[in-house]
Write a structure and sequence with these properties.
The protein has about 250 residues and is α/β, with parallel strands linked by helices. The chain has a domain of about 170 residues: Vaccinia Virus protein VP39 (Rossmann fold), CATH 3.40.50. Helices cover about 35% and strands about 20% of the residues. The protein contains eight helices and seven strands; from the N terminus they run ααββαββαβααβααβ. A seven-stranded mixed beta sheet has the order 3-2-1-4-5-7-6, sandwiched between helices. Bound molecules: S-adenosylmethionine. S-adenosylmethionine binds next to loops. It holds the Pfam family Methyltransf_11.
Length: about 250
């Protein structure tokens, strides 16, 4: 996983800044039932999205395990922050109306413990809102040259995607969370050039480009035209998963 302590100072600038955060927050709040008053943003990072989830009748707590990310979030979040792992939230069972998880599940070996923990802390009728299929988003445009060039590698490693939407839906159902809508947001500034994809592969930051396949990935990416032209911004998918209103 990325070292988010090292990443913190550059995080907002390199992840689309305020425009990406505003788009993400709009897509999340569109999925909130009207009754939502208490929100927990799990893996809140620098809080750049979290701060926009609060409202006149909604309080937001940010939780993250990385100190340097969390100290930035603390300056943005009057509702407070807590340092904790997503699999062990410092919250009572059935105590919050919404759990938000943006750009976390794709980083993990397994989403199951995070989904179980979200289900534990949600009140009856509460909602888990999470990104899914994050690493596939840059390749979702049909016929895009990056998508075509990298498809064999991504297909081979599809089983390693912890945030696969079908798997997330199945895990959620095991914990009594059922589909309650979906939305999407533009990853402003996240469309990368082929050269940047190659740099990410060389830094071993892509699950679908492990070292054993690096040479083949390099050949596929360097064969693409316009090496330094960013491809279109990806669109990231959010699912809303709602706890039953009675008897769990
Ligand atoms: C890609 S950032 C997303 C931050 C924020 N949600 C956003 O959209 O800007 C991933 C964040 O997850 C946090 N993280 C990674 N694994 C975690 C875990 N097991 N428990 C809590 N936070 C975690 C990292 O510290 C980092 O801040």
């Amino acid at each position: 996983m990325i070292d988010y302590d090292a990443e913190a100072a550059d995080y907002d600038r390199t992840r689309g800044g305020e425009p990406r955060a505003a788009a993400a927050a709009r897509a999340v709040t569109a999925l909130f039932p009207a009754s939502v008053r208490t929100v927990v943003d799990v893996a809140c990072g620098t809080g750049i999205v979290t701060t926009r989830l609060a409202g006149s009748r909604r309080t937001v707590l940010g939780i993250d395990r990385t100190p340097a990310m969390l100290s930035r979030a603390a300056t943005r979040l009057p509702g407070g922050v807590a340092r904790a792992d997503a699999t062990a939230l410092p919250l009572k069972a059935a105590s919050v109306d919404a759990v938000v998880v943006i750009w976390l599940l794709h980083l993990l070996p397994d989403a199951a413990p995070v989904i179980a923990e979200a289900a534990r802390v949600l009140r009856p009728g509460g909602v888990l809102i999470t990104t899914v299929d994050k690493d596939e988003a840059p390749f979702a445009r049909p016929g895009g040259d990056l998508a075509v060039a990298t498809e064999p590698f991504r297909t081979r490693h599809a089983a390693r995607r912890a945030d696969n939407a079908d798997r997330v839906l199945a895990l959620a159902a095991e914990h009594g969370l059922h589909p309650a809508g979906e939305s999407a947001f533009r990853g402003v500034g996240q469309g990368r050039t082929p050269a940047r994809w190659l740099a990410a592969a060389e830094a071993n930051r892509l699950k679908w480009a492990p070292p054993a396949e690096l040479e083949a990935v390099r050949a596929a990416l360097t064969a693409l035209p316009e090496q330094d032209s960013p491809r279109p911004d990806p669109t990231y998918r959010l699912l809303a998963l709602r706890a039953r209103t009675t008897g769990r």
